[in-house]
Amino acid sequence: MTYRGWAEIAIVAVIIGLMIKPLGTYIFHVFEGEHTFLDPILGPVERFIFRFLSIDKDKEYKWTGYILRMIALDFAIIFFAYLIFRLQGHLPLNPAQAPGMRPDLAFNSAVSFGTNTNWQAYAGETQASNLSQMIVITTCMFTSVASGIVMAIAFMRGLSRRANPFLGNFYADFIRAILRILLPLALLFTLVLIPLGVPQTLKGPARVLTLEGEQQEIARGPVATLEAIKHIGNNGGGFFNANSAHPYENPSPVSNIILILLMLLVPASMIYVLGLYLQNRRQGWVIFAAIVLLFIIFAGLTMWFESRASPILEETGVDVTAGNMEGKETRYGVDDSALFGASTTSAATGSVNSSHDSYTPLGGMILIGCMMLNTVLGSSGAGLINILIYIIFTVFLAGLMVGRTPEFTGKKIESREVRLGVIALLIHPLCILGFTTLSLAIPSARNAILNSGPHGITEMAYAFTSATANNGSAFGGLAVSSAYFNVTTGVAMLIGRYAIFIPILAVAGSLAEKQILPESEGTFRTDTPLFAGLLIGIIIIIGALTFFPVLALGPLAEHFALFG
Amino acid sequence: MAGNEGKAEAGKLMDAALIKEAVINSFKKLNPMNLIRNPVMFVVEIGAVITTYFFIRYAINGVEGGQGSVAFAALISLWLWFTVLFANFAEAVAEGRGRAQAETLRRTRVETTAKLLQDNGEIKMVSAGELRKGQVVVAEAGDVIPGDGEVIEGIASVDESAITGESAPVIRAAGGDFSSVTGGTMVLSDQIKIKISANPGESFLDKMISLVEGAQRQKTPNEIALSILLVAFTIIFLVVVFILSPLGGYLEARPDVTSLVALLVCLIPTTIGGLLSAIGIAGINRLTQYNVLAMSGRAVEAAGDINTLLLDKTGTITFGNRFANEFSPFEGHNEDEVGEVAMLSSFGDGTPEGQSILTLGKKLGIEVTKPENCVVVEFTAETRMSGLDCADNSYRKGAADAIAKYAVAAGHVLPSHYEESVQFIASQGSTPLAVARDGDIIGLVELKDVVKPGISERFERLRAMGIKTMMITGDNPFTAKTIAGEAGVDDFVAEAKPEDKMGLIRNEQGQGKLVAMTGDGTNDAPALAIADVGLAMNSGTQAAKEAGNMVDLDSDPAKLIEVVEIGKQLLITRGSLTTFSIANDVSKYFAIIPALFMAYIPGLASLNIMRLYSHHSAILSAVIFNALIIIALVPLALKGVKYRPLGASAILRRNILIYGIGGLIAPFIGIKLIDMLLRLFHF
Amino acid sequence: MDDAKRIVKIIMLAVLLLGLVYPFAFSGIARLTPSKADGDMIEVDGRVVGARNIGQEFSSPEYFHGRLSAGGYDAMASGASNLGPSNPELVFRAEERLNQILLENPGIKPEDVPAEMVTASASGLDPEIGLRSAYLQVSRIAESTGILEDALRALIAKYERGRFLWVFGEPRVNVLELNVEIWKMLGEVRQ
Predict the structure, then answer these.
(1) Where are the beta strands (DSSP E) in A134-195?
(2) What is the pLDDT of residues B51-108, one digit of tens each?
(3) Nearest-CA distance from B532 to chain A in Å?
(4) Tens of pLDDT along A60-118?
(5) Active-site residue among B143, B177, B256, B312?
(6) What are phi and psi of B348, to 5 degrees?
(7) ipTM of the assembly?
(8) Chain C residues in contact with A337 (beta carbon < 8 A)
(9) Domain definitions of chain A by residue range
(10) How far is CA A412 from the centre of its chain?
(11) Could you please report the per-residue DSSP string of C40-51?
(12) Annotated domain spans of chain C
């Protein structure tokens, strides 16, 4: 990688570092009902919506009440999405005449957008109607991330409240997340993206006669509105099959860097929000520093690994100084593609501006690794929750090592929290490893692999890692349109979201009821560089121990075979 | 002295007999029904059974393809069994040491006969083992008290050295705070009636014996939490290893079962899993070495978390008795004169205060001989003075106002500034005694509450651990403040009644803090019961001992500091070894993964960064290291990781360095060394 | 109001505001820059010849050629080849393409050909190529069109897109933009 690459990473880190304080403070004020500068406009709208839905924002729920309503709403949306996908052929706004989806594909797609995964087993240009793109996909891009954000908010309230089991009003939080955070950001950045060349039109495909006299039909549509919320909300579902590599979704290096910043923005700010909830900004900064350091390392490594083309391509004698260009766009080159790749896998977004399947073995390993760790920022809300799971375990070990019952921010971590945390921690790898192995053992599933050998293992593992981490990006070579993959990845997405949210909110409920212990000399402080270092160490070691064998047989085996 | 014997015995970590017994027990503990309580080691045992099965199958049918070999299967099986045995051994040693301590305790319980007082008033000789709770026995001089109980009638001096190791006899009397007696102690004089307070096998001694032996051990909260984490790791690694076969199968690489089992055992946290229960038992044992008996492991663990320590001033911070500190003469008299009169008036005074006046006088070089033919005037609550009436002179010392009345009655005038001088001493937190010769007040004696030497250093140490000390005293705020300042406690409550302790504890607990306190009186019992750590003094009442969750046999309240340290040490040892265990796994992957797959995927040889000799030597080295490290760490598990009263961050940094980074690096070296040894045998 | 009813209302509201009003409203607002909003189509002499940012297939010797496209520049089915780095197909395809380039551009050696010209883009619609990829085609185009090489070089320099903030992206030229210029020049010749 080049100095330019380092500069890019540094610029991104600095801009995010500058943004999290204002945005994080704003988010905190929104959820705590404090005054914000948008009140004059959004205040009346919010009051109207609350009245329309008879929401009493001061009526708070315990963790069970909170998560039950969240799940009920999510599943209602998933069911609605399923219906629309099935029936889109008979519904209006279908200029490309996309037929209704098969049940398995509709299930997969509905779950995918309902869980903030945005895994796309269909091709956007031909298999989703404009109506589906708008009322299902665009809508879900707001709602699914909103429910993730409010989960994190509820968790943080649990951490910060003193002997008070109530975590807030789910409906009020959900609506505020959309109305006051996601929508303003989406409006703003839609306006930024359109002049950069992202189409926003209701017209059908354009037909052109090329200079060489060929016909070319060009798909287009209301892309800008989707592109903005797709990144702000860590959704990642593309309007087009090529996702953010498509010149309409991401026309230039300028739009590319904006999209990168957009997907990191809210997840990073949520860490700052944590500091505010804990009334310890330093705590927020320390965790942010740890996570951003991980991000910098992974982004840097991806760039570095991608700066070399596949040796077998080198043998043809062409000039490979530009690095591994297969599956990358000229306008981004290797560095901007790798940075986007590391960002989208870190922040659980899933949009891609290059073909991850064509990355070098180690470059691809970092991408899949980011999703396996699931904590390098992660998506808005869900990411912070995953980080907090790791923090609980870090605190547990550290607490023991200093000779005290472990506590985080004055709340004791006892066997109930550890038990629930362990469930959340185990679900992720077990789901990934289980489905990957199952699929490699089933011949028909195995046949979906495009690139055989060790790369095939990576392809398969990537699919289920992406689904479980609710990421949505893919090693596109794997043919996942079969009913088998639609069902298994769909189930993996559900497990990856709800089987983690439920125990983790139970932890929040349990912590909320606890007293906050005063700090003393004997308390191990969690807002120090030492803690940041330990957190990084634990994230990497637990991740490495869990996934090393798969990575050894997949990307590492491929790497050693290629590079010797 | 039993207590000291216990210390001596525990001083040696292991002796030959102990080890022999532990070795035998480690085989007995192979029983799966027993081992299933420790899931990590249970998995190892199942692994050992599987590899042994393959060894036998290979030995009979020959090796069926793959990379297996009879010798390899045999050695792996052997070392897996060793792994289980080593873990069992650690537990057996800890239990053995506990048993040795219990034996010492038990030896104190000589099989005695009890004089049971029957309803008809007759005395019947029964065996002590038959006594039931509520029965009344009689014990006379020379009798061994047959069981724990409470004196309901009489007063006696009792030798409690069997329990406490303290040879000085103590007074036990009906009513009040000194009514409790412990089985196994001996009555030296007089006769008492004792109401037995425990059924056989439930006595205090029995409870602690079973706890020390580890028989009744219940997992403590942190231990449960840690066990859950260890089970989680075991599940992850079970899955990781289980999927290797199908994953490798996709690449036509199918490792043999023996190697896979070896990998599994190396990955699951056997180090901490094998030592966890030994650590817990050893923690209780260490406490016993300090002559503190914990009623549960939970209490020991809670001790490590203590935020606030409530301490009675009297007896804990100060010696409890006031000591003469200074003789201050009034105008016209000198210090020696005051000292002389004070000493004369104290000759008949057996109280510690009186004795301290004599001591001070001697220290100041005042020579006084006891005059002949004098009559001792005893202290009474009415006169509030004591002294000596001799032929020529009369000497008195006593409370300032009492002496003043006495002087005025004798026709003397009070010295000028009498009131001020008295007030001044009182304001210093001391007690003024006035001294008069023939009715004339010549000076004052300052009686001072003396803070025990070294106590402020101990509080300093507590502060470094993050524990707030709070002194409770019935004294006035002046006195309390002075003592508090001198002793270096963080806070104090003056003019406190015993009942106030309850409120204080509740208040602290309401803020989420954990509170420890010591107590001995019956009126301490409720507070001891609600305190998170209630350390009762063995000299205290039965009620106090039953309310608390620890008993200090030496009745030294300052012992709480050791208790706290042991509690912390317990957690630190667990945490450090867990970290070590997990950090170890990195090297094991690098040893075993390339070994498993090198033959099929040659590129993976690059992962063999230790350059281990062969497939077999790599896997065997990792397994051997994994087993040996358990044995190597047994002493650490038994002794505990040393606790240093540093700030939490300093401790953490240190332990991460040693057990985290060390745990990462050490096995790389260890495995490589073992591999080099194996290479000598061309394995 | 019970939760079920409230949830239905929330979905209705969300679909209405987020799914319909939001995209429709912006499609309206976007009419302020209709050309960008509709996909930045390039019109030459009254004929829409393509979208500026959507690559298209050029194979005749007089035009600049773009990168390999996994989907043959089908703008209704974008996508990458997804060939893994160890997939032999990667080399077959690259060699085939390289031989074609060497054949079409005499005097060019393999090491003069940047790897991007023998690899497929991520979208299959990459509209651009790097500067070296453009320059290596100059002599071929000059020969087949009669346009002076210097004019072509000037054209490349004119249409060069640099890095954003000196850091982001790679210097490159848009193939369609260049070819439209060539088409125009040839048109002048034709007339």
Answers:
(1) 166-168
(2) 999 999 988 888 766 667 888 999 999 999 999 999 999 989 888 887 787 777 666 5
(3) 13
(4) 999 999 999 999 999 999 999 999 999 999 998 888 788 999 999 999 999 999 999 99
(5) B312
(6) -95, 5
(7) 0.95
(8) 122
(9) 3-207+216-370, 381-563
(10) 30
(11) -EEEETTEEEEE
(12) 1-32, 39-186
